[in-house]
Amino acid sequence: MANLHGKDKAKHVVRLFRRIANSYDLLNTLMSGGRHRDWRKQAIQMFNLSKNGIAIDVATGTGDFSIEISQFTNVEKVFGVDFAKEMVALAQKKSLNLKTNNKIFYIEADASFLPFKNSIFQYATIGFGIRNFYDLSKGLSEVRRVLKENGELIILEIVRHEKNIFSKIFFRCFDLVAPILGYVFARDRGAYKYLTKSAEMFFTAEELSSFLKDQGFNIVSKKSIAFGNVSILLCSKK
Ligand SMILES: C[S@@+](CC[C@H](N)C(=O)[O-])C[C@H]1O[C@@H](n2cnc3c(N)ncnc32)[C@H](O)[C@@H]1O
User: Fold this and answer.
1) 109: left (phi over 0), alpha (psi -120 to 50) or beta
2) What gap in Å lies between CA 11 and CA 110, rounded to an integer?
3) Burial class (CB in 10 A: 0-12, 13-18, 19+), 90
4) Residue 199: how many CB atoms within 10 A of its CB?
5) Which residue is closest in CA terms to ligand 1's atom 16?
6) What is the pLDDT of residues 119-137, one digit of tens each?
7) 74 lies in a domain?
8) How many domains in the chain?
9) Is residue 66 part of a domain?
């Protein structure tokens, strides 16, 4: 399943996230040892947030990155985009409860066809989303298209780390534990098996940087966290 491509992958991924939406936040917390919110905070702090502008959070899921970036006064509006209806509904509910000043607008849409004009966003975020894209080049070219010339993109993603023993241990544990947690809390072992496999088959940090460069982005800075298993990349348009 983890080696699906194109339309088959799109169908599989959207169904999977629609199914696990209700347990997504809890499992994120359990699997990251409670760290995932802090990782997003660290990521947002890498932006040069001195410019006024609007932000897009692609593959927003339950909205954590949208909520995080909406806290900054220079960020005038945030559009959180995701193609899984149930994730979008949960993001909406969460933002309402947190009173995010009505700055966030959630939209059910596909990253490969963003419903926005060219060059309008100053900031873009993608958190744990790109490895799930069914067409990574198209998704990134869409993000590039809607970003302003001096706009910036933050990518937060799990990466492979071939030579690091901690990474090997992490992936081994992730592989064993995630499907069990998925079964216990979401009654869905298969979904979490897929998510761990998709991480194991994804890029290393170096491969991800060079892929982004090929897609028309400069890597402004990068940070490695969680023993090298998670990368944060700040990118600008080439
Ligand atoms: C692992 S979740 C990440 C959610 C959130 N960004 C976070 O940081 O927790 C991945 C999300 O990407 C969304 N997604 C994957 N491919 C997508 C696409 N082509 N278009 C829109 N959303 C997509 C899924 O529906 C899911 O909600």
Assistant:
1) beta
2) 12
3) buried
4) 22
5) 133
6) 999 999 999 999 999 999 9
7) yes
8) 1
9) yes
What is the extent of the structural domain holding 52? Answer: 6-159+205-237
- pTM, entire model: 0.94
Which is the closest atom of ligand 1 to the Cα of 40? 8
Q: Which of 14, 219, 194 is nearest to 111 (CA)?
A: 14
Beta bridge partners of 137: none
Give a yes or no: residue 209 inside a domain. Answer: yes
CA nearest to 111, candidates 89, 92, 130: 130
**CATH number, domain with residue 149:** 3.40.50.150
Rounded to whole angstroms, the Cα distance separating 127 from 180 reads 23
| Pick from 170, 176, 146, 143: nearest CA to 227 | 170
Nearest CA to ligand 1 atom 1: 128
For residue 88, report the distance from its CA to the centre of ligand 1, in Å: 10
Considering only CA atoms, which residue is closest to atom 13 of ligand 1?
A: 59
- d(CA 82, ligand 1 centre) in Å: 6
- CA-CA distances (angstroms) from residue 116 to 49, 55, 77, 181, 213? 22, 12, 14, 37, 23
CA angle 139, 26, 197 (to 5 degrees): 50
Q: Is 25 part of a structural domain of the chain?
A: yes
Tokens of 222: 């990068």
Summarised one tens digit per residue, pLDDT across range 38-95 is: 999 999 999 989 999 999 999 999 999 999 999 999 999 999 999 999 999 999 999 9
